[in-house]
Amino acid sequence: MQEKPENYMHQCLNFAKNALEAGNPPVGALIVLDGKVIGTGIESGKSTGDITNHAEIMAIRDALKNGYSDKLHLASMYTTHEPCIMCSYMIRHHRIPEVIYGTSVPYIGGYTSKFNVLATEDVPKWGNKPKVISGICFDECNALNTQFLERLNKL
């Protein structure tokens, strides 16, 4: 029996809360293969000073470290936020066939912005574009975003 997307997204939300507590944008990500979580990621770009430490990239790095480099093309990525352009490039590079996210990211989202890296078919070596599902746990993802923005505005 396959788990509901909300179950995985709740795990992502827990990671996102950890990211928020560390002063980062509230983003958490998972990579799932055959019902098993093979990679996890917590947004840590602000706290580490390394902009490449986005949750989605951290989840891919974790899956690679766990020995799944040859299986990413069969896995799904769950993330609280639409992957940005940078993360979307990495998703396409590893040919992850499905991306499920909570809330969109204006201007730099890899699917809804004019820089639609996830949707383009203009790069032949990327293969097929991934299936993208949005709006999973939308309200919970946005609530964490609001908390982050409120903290930023108080500084």
Description:
The protein is of the alpha/beta class. 37% of the residues lie in helices and 18% in strands. A five-stranded mixed β-sheet has the order 2-1-3-4-5. Helix 4 links the parallel strand 3 and strand 4. Helix 1 runs parallel beside helix 5. The N and C termini lie far apart (46 Å). 42% of the residues are buried.
Task: Reconstruct the topology from this structure.
Elements: H1 5-21, E1 28-33, E2 36-42, H2 45-48, H3 55-65, E3 76-81, H4 85-93, E4 98-103, E5 131-133, H5 138-154
Helix pairs in contact: 1-5
In short:
With 155 residues, the protein is α/β, with parallel strands linked by helices.
